[in-house]
Each structure stands twice: as structure tokens, then as C-alpha cells.
Amino acid sequence: MIYGKMWCVVKPTLGIPLILTAVAFGSFNVHLALLNNTTWVKGFLNGNAAKVVSMNTEAPPAAPKAQ
Fold first, then answer.
1. Where are the transmembrane segments (predicted)?
2. What is the pLDDT of residues 32-44, one digit of tens each?
């Protein structure tokens, strides 16, 4: 562990909940920012996803041979 000595200063009963709280808070803020700053996320979550254009799975036509 890189920061193994940290637990000599901070008790794990305090440090681990603080780290988990910080990760949850950061994740919540990122998701909130996505919802507030984009137009497509709200539509996607409401079931209004854009229609997917069908992809052409056929091989491209062969190039003409040089004479």
C-alpha cells in the first residue's frame, strides 16, 4: 500500500468513512453536473433516446482494376 503509514496518524474508523463519503460526494456532483449541463442526458433518461441509424454491414464495392 502506498499510503500505509497514513493509518498510523488517522484511525481507520475515521479515515475509511471519510474517504467513502468523499467518493460518493464527488460522484454525485459529477452526475448532477451532467444532468444540468447537457441536453441529451435528460432525454435519454426519459426514454427519448435518439434513433440509431442502421449501419451498413455489407462489404464495400471492389475498386476498379487499373488497365
1. 14-35
2. 998 899 888 888 8
